[in-house]
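Data availability (excerpt). The following record was deposited with the supplementary files.
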Amino acid sequence: MGAVTFDGLVTFCEDITTTARFYEDGLGLQRDWADEHHVALALPTKGNPSGAWLLLHPKTGGDNTPHALGTFMVDDVDAVIERLRAAGHGITEEPTDQPWGVREASVVDPDGYGLTLTMPKQ
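Predicted structure:
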């Protein structure tokens, strides 16, 4: 069996414009491409600046229960949380130093997906 690497993630959104604004303006992700129904954002990863992708896709019937989306490494957790708070996004966990060597916080995106924001503890 060959190596398995992360390639990308699809998240289903009520309002793609609002969700794209959260990821672009709130987290600083860069838009890779968009069409009339989708937005793809670049997710650079450590050691791989071309990284993976996050595809914002419209919700279409079925199970609309949001599931945890994942963790984003950021340069300054406190600054990002304050920027998101100022924009009216729900902060579910304030920035806290963790015993495993990171500072992290949690936020909910416009579609209810939980995100953990993390950075190495200073």
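Summary of structural features: The mean pLDDT is 84.
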